[in-house]
Design goal:
mainly alpha, two-stranded antiparallel ribbon, 72% helix, globular
Amino acid sequence: MSALGAVLSPLEGSGPKADAVVQRLSAAISLGVMVDGQQLPSETDLANQLGISTMTLREALVILRQQGIVHTKRGRGGGSFISASAEVFENTSLARLQQMSIQELRDLGDEHFAVTGAIAVFAARRGVRADIIRLRALSDRLKDSTELVAARRADSRFHIEMAVCAQSPRLTRAEVGLQAELSALLWLPRLKLAPAAEAAAHRDLVDAIEREDDAKARELAESRTESRIRRLVALRLELSDR
């Protein structure tokens, strides 16, 4: 399963489907799988890929338009197009963080801790040479990023490609969902994540995967996830005090 295939795979579970679509498409933009100005597939094709009705998709597109992430053109050559800017994502993410409770954040962190640890184990056991090369390239892309949008996309793409390396479609879909919820929050400018430092942590993880050291890979993945969530919770508490 590719990163794009994971992002556009059928939705699973219960809950509001329109909200899930919004998260999926936001994740695709965060990952750079979809970029500014790109036209979305037709409503029928996109609804079929996501396993939802066209009515549900239209509800999601209304939300995305309200958030400034998508705009729609009518008439010949029309359709829905990606139009998200870095400022739109930052404002939307900061507002969402303020609406989340500390318990919700910690629960989300717990899920990412479990999923990322499992992904690291299976990536070390099942990864092939091509996977290692792809993960190292994404680490380098993150290290060389000079602005946060590019850094966020490289970081998120790394985590999803690591799930692809684990050869587990379920874990890959789970990681896509988690990146949809977390990536824009974790790379808020106020958290001041350093691309070079994050890339160095990724390279250590890839080294463990390449050595097939599943215990070390799990340890590195879990510790990095825990550290990031602690910083996000601290920011949420700081916003509460204002």
